[in-house]
TrEMBL record, chains A, B:
NCBIfam families according to UniProt: PRK05159.1 (NF003483)
Subcellular location: Cytoplasm
Subunit structure: Homodimer.
Gene Ontology MF term list: aspartate-tRNA(Asn) ligase activity
Protein name (database record): Aspartate--tRNA(Asp/Asn) ligase
Binding-site positions, L-aspartate: 160, 203, 364, 368
Domain Aminoacyl-transfer RNA synthetases class-II family profile: 145-438
Species: Nocardioides zeicaulis
Similarity comment text for this entry: Belongs to the class-II aminoacyl-tRNA synthetase family. Type 2 subfamily.
Gene: aspS
Catalytic activity: tRNA(Asx) + L-aspartate + ATP = L-aspartyl-tRNA(Asx) + AMP + diphosphate
Chain sites annotated for binding ATP: 203-205, 211-213, 361, 409-412
Record-marked site positions (Important for tRNA non-discrimination): 74
Alphabetic keyword roster: Aminoacyl-tRNA synthetase, ATP-binding, Cytoplasm, Ligase, Nucleotide-binding, Protein biosynthesis
Top-level taxonomy: Bacteria, Bacillati, Actinomycetota, Actinomycetes, Propionibacteriales
A Pfam family recorded for this sequence: tRNA_anti-codon
Length: 438, 438
């Protein structure tokens, strides 16, 4: 019967225990040999008589010995009088010493040797926080009456714009990798009303930045019967709180990753796009927020509201996809602290938002159009033929509720949690312009 | 404040309630108009004065009226003196009457009109069972110390065999869609020891059958420190039990879908491949089980063991992928009820298995090789250059435990639960040789 490292402190002193894991570190001293064993649960200290050989670091082993109380061991119990049986041949020396407190390697080294270097407890913790976040995301939405969906990643037409799609040879004809589940999650709102999906999305991003990947995990949400995008933001607030709470439960991984957990305010501060430009010191005719504007807004939210999060609503329609609902400010006016004069029903602005987390765009969302006629007009206005979206438009012709949703980038979320300089530091096998392996 | 249909029976009679949803059915009688409203939670009966118009079926509406106890209504409460506000233009007539108890349409009609026809309560239930299964899958594995992972779907080399991969134009060079997360989940065993992934897999299957799709959801599991594939089967048994339990919690959807839930036996019956051939009446030199053999074995398991599940272990090495661990029968002999003479350490057979559910292959799994030298030999023996798997082999050179895992096809699982004739009946947007839309 195997004992996990983190259960060793609960073993009765004097009893025999069997541990299995990797040789995290071996230290052969004159009178004694120490072995630190690593398994999925943590580390354990093992003591062998001097002269007893231990396989090199990273070899997998089975350790049999006596649980012994000692103040020097982590958790107060170590394994003594141990015998060590190797489960494989001797492991090759890793490209960095995994037992050191920090993994001090360059980014290319980390990425090239991901299967080995991600074993470092601090590095592995990044993904443990990602997994905890997924659990918090789903748990929150399950509690709010959402149903998980899975929509096709192979699609016949480019989802939202043709510029950044990957083309696939699909039985001799072209298909595309879905840039987002947007059009499908909307259709499933017609079926299940409240839906979410966790899945890969694909962007043939031709630029090489610290915050873009060609494949990433999108946490998508869509819900029917909303008044406007503020109802969507309210669900987003619950989801973020649930994700932070689930991450906090993995306290060991939080510590190993050096993550600083944010507080999700009861009301996330919201500023209108026009005001955001002013706050960020950007010209008032800018059509979008540049990274430096996002950083300035993040700093403002922290200084003014003590919040790591700030939502910017009302993005210019011209910069949003065809399914975006125009601004219906009137109903919002009372709820908003905006100071600018963007009165209700303005076609320049939209009922959409971005949510910034520590000065970086993390979430895009908003209210969508829900009338078939509005879709046809929106597509025609952009020079697109509604016939290419015939299957999608079916849903609207057959009755759809006012609805909206959002998408969170999982890797960006973890990257901001641990304040990584590059999103690739928290992505085990990133895909970008240059990288398709490991 | 909106009341959901399934909460209506709890409303205080005489109070005003607001419901939102789709017009599921309207019936205009001489003295009264009935409207059945559908939302994500169920149906509610609404009564309007005669002559009051109700939008056509599938239009989304907001209903305001008085909660009124009546024996005739489902749940004992209906909404009377109601006013109905349409939230969109009149909906187009659906291609089938969604209010009828069964959705009697051809498969092509169902698939072409998926965004509308999946709204039928019995049809929608298929996906609700899929979602419940996912919850049961993850919940069981979280409880067993597994960590969810997400591995790349864009890969530089074909995963297991070159014959059925989709090629992608990846920034001007070829990439492939992952046929399975196999090679990556193994690498992540080196990092996290016990991992699972729910994600799309892609198979350029050139044949058109009732049980294959070009894109489907694979529920992948991989764990380290196993003795052999029987340890993997034991985890699979727990996972299946967890999935059935989670499905059973959605009793309403089980009833709507007409699903017959299986009992997962404490010990799933296991037969050796050689014995399986004999039981199925197949020639003893068959290298694989044909669909009719699977059906025969399913019938045998039900008759002999009262089990909807049967595992076949020891598949011929020649038919399994390069990473398959050969048969180590000795340790298994005592645990197995086999009658044939496949003694320990036989290189013809493998430590792999298929699990059949109601006579259909649902799961493939087994123990994998874990020594770097074994991988090199296995690849060379198949005429493959180990260098093409350099990144993958890194994990083994740097120390991996004995490990194994399995993969469940989500759509097949739901298909067998509801005993669908074609896997496409339970897949909202199937992808195959002929179909790339909706």
């Amino acid at each position: 019967m195997r004992t996990l490292c983190h259960d060793l402190p609960a073993a009765t002193p004097g009893t025999e225990v069997v541990l299995e894991g990797w040789v995290h570190r071996r230290r052969e001293l004159a009178r004694v040999t120490f072995l630190v064993l690593r398994d999925r649960s943590g580390l354990a200290q093992v003591v062998l008589p001097a002269g007893r050989s231990v396989p090199p670091e990273e070899t997998t082993v089975r350790v049999t010995g006596t649980a012994t109380a000692t103040a020097q061991a982590p958790g107060g119990v170590e394994v003594t009088a141990a015998t060590v049986e190797a489960l494989t041949d001797d492991a090759l020396t890793p490209p960095a010493e995994l037992w050191r407190p920090t993994l001090d390697v360059s980014l290319p080294t980390l990425l090239d040797h991901a299967p080995v270097l991600w074993r470092h407890p601090a590095q592995r913790a990044h993904w443990e926080l990602a997994a905890a976040s997924l659990r918090g995301f789903r748990g929150t939405l399950d509690g709010l009456g959402f149903t998980e969906i899975a929509t096709p990643k192979l699609v016949g037409t480019a989802t939202e714009s043709g510029s950044t799609v990957f083309e696939v040879d699909y039985f001799g004809r072209p298909a595309y990798l879905a840039q987002s589940p947007q059009l499908y999650k909307q259709q499933m709102v017609g079926v299940l009303e409240r839906v979410y999906e966790v899945g890969p999305v694909f962007r043939a991003e031709p630029h090489d930045t610290v915050r873009h990947l060609a494949e990433y995990r999108s946490l998508d949400v869509e819900l029917g019967f909303v008044r406007d995008h503020r109802d969507v933001l309210a669900v987003l607030r619950e989801v973020l709180a649930g994700m932070v709470a689930a991450v906090a439960e993995r306290e060991d991984a939080v510590v190993r990753a050096g993550a600083r957990l944010p507080v999700v305010p009861d009301e996330v501060p919201v500023v209108h796009f026009a005001d955001a430009l002013a706050l960020a010191g950007a010209p008032d005719d800018e059509p979008d927020l540049a990274p430096e504007h996002e950083r300035a807004l993040g700093a403002w939210a922290l200084a003014e509201h003590g919040s790591d999060f700030v939502a910017v609503e009302g993005y210019p329609m011209a910069k949003r996809p065809f399914y975006t609902h125009p601004w219906t400010g009137a109903g919002l006016e009372a709820r908003s602290a905006r100071t600018s004069t963007t009165e209700g029903g303005d076609e320049r602005w939209s009922n959409s938002f971005d949510l910034l987390f520590r000065g970086l765009e993390l979430v895009t969302g908003g209210q969508r159009l829900h009338r078939a006629a509005d879709y046809e007009a929106a597509l025609l206005a952009r020079g697109e033929d509604p016939a290419t979206h015939a299957a999608y438009l079916q849903a609207f012709r057959h009755g759809m509720p006012p609805h909206g949703g959002f998408a969170i980038g999982l890797e960006r979320w973890v990257g901001r949690l641990v304040e990584a300089a590059n999103i690739r530091e928290v992505t085990p096998f990133p895909r970008d312009l240059h990288r398709l392996a490991p």
